[in-house]
Design a protein that fits this description.
The protein has 16 helices and no strands. By secondary structure, it is mainly alpha-helical.
Length: 362
């Protein structure tokens, strides 16, 4: 097992390198980079220009670029100022050199500072992480707590009226986009048009620091109820069908018939024999489900419920071309995804010791 883990760890290096290289290459063709963002701010508000130039004399003159100017909004700005901006952001170097320097810094977990927020990328991610962890963790737990019992019940009652009606409800739930369901929840339960039961925005109330410990816990769950339910809707449907199909596949195998022939109760057969084998594929889907909820579907949910998490951070950084935040978070999340994938394989072995990845790899 140690050799398999070592191979997987070594494989993470070229995989992560490839992810970063592809995304870095794509950004070279995206218009409106950081310098264009700065120039647009200069055109819109004069005080930004003073902050960029360090408060000194900018040397702005009447010199103008011709029709082949490289940056939109650069008309009227001196070439020296543009060159200083390029040096400040590192764009005075070739793309290959910038990429290699970036990867060398990232290997040492040095992600630099945000272009526009004057804060390190690490501090920024740590600041936004609790919101996304909240959504990802509780949504995943809720999906498993509902989907596994429901999936088992559907497998046992396969073909019955219960199975038919619940399958219809699950298909409808899967077809509803999470953000649309979030809007529906707001309309129904957050004072949109009907009841005002849950708060509309935020993770906690404004007076949260003044509340008692028990009141803080209640306030926290009061605020996250609607975002978590909205994040769970699609993953709940997928996981339920996955659980049902996995149990149906195991129920029809020979060892189940043998266990029943020995006189074991249906409950003993189901939870003593079938459960362990059927849950392998469900456990394998945990990392993907958690990461998809944590990083994939959180952008719209966080925006709708005014939650300041990693989803909104990534979206705002991409719009503003804040490359240190974009690539820093991409590196961390990519590495996290690879590590969780390895942990998923190790969980396979814990659940079923018969699995030997070293023999399969050989």
């Amino acid at each position: 097992m140690g050799a398999y883990i070592l191979r997987r760890l070594l494989l993470m290096i070229p995989t992560l390198f490839g992810i970063m290289l592809i995304n870095f290459t794509l950004t070279q063709f995206v218009p409106g980079g950081p310098i264009e963002q700065i120039l647009a701010r200069i055109e819109g508000q004069g005080d930004v220009f003073q902050g960029i130039s360090g408060g000194g004399d900018s040397g702005m003159g009447e010199q103008q670029y011709g029709g082949d100017e490289r940056y939109l909004g650069a008309r009227g700005l001196p070439p020296d100022f543009i060159a200083e901006l390029e040096k400040q952001f590192g764009f005075d170097k070739p793309p290959a050199e910038r990429f290699l320097n970036m990867m060398w810094d990232y290997l040492r977990f040095d992600f630099g500072e945000s272009y526009f927020r004057s804060i390190s990328v690490v501090d920024l991610v740590i600041e936004k992480m609790p919101v996304s962890i909240t959504l990802g963790l509780w949504s995943t737990l809720l999906a498993y707590l509902i989907s596994i019992p429901l999936g088992i019940r559907k497998a046992v009652k396969d073909g019955s009226r219960f199975d038919t009606w619940t399958s219809g409800a699950i298909i409808v739930a899967y077809a509803i986009p999470g953000f649309l369901f979030a809007v529906l929840l707001i309309v129904l339960f957050a004072g949109g048009s009907y009841w005002r039961i849950f708060p509309l925005r935020g993770l906690v109330s404004d007076n949260w620091n003044d509340l008692s410990l028990l009141a803080k816990v209640g306030d926290y769950f009061w605020h996250i109820t609607l975002p978590v339910v909205a994040s769970t809707i699609s993953s709940f449907a997928t996981l339920t069908l996955l659980t049902k199909n996995s149990f149906l596949d195991e129920i029809n195998k020979q060892y189940v018939l043998t266990a029943r022939a020995k006189g074991l109760t249906e409950k003993r057969v189901l939870y003593g024999h079938v459960f362990r084998n059927a849950m392998l594929i469900v456990i394998a889907g945990f990392p993907g489900l958690f990461l998809s909820v944590l990083f994939g579907g959180s952008v719209l949910i966080e925006t709708i419920f005014s939650l300041d998490g990693l989803g909104r951070l990534g979206y705002e950084a991409a719009v503003a071309r804040d490359y240190p935040v974009v690539f820093g978070t991409l590196y961390v999340f990519g590495l996290l995804g690879l590590v969780i994938g390895l942990l998923s394989d190790l969980t396979y072995v814990l659940v079923d010791p018969r699995i030997d990845f070293e023999k399969r790899a050989g």
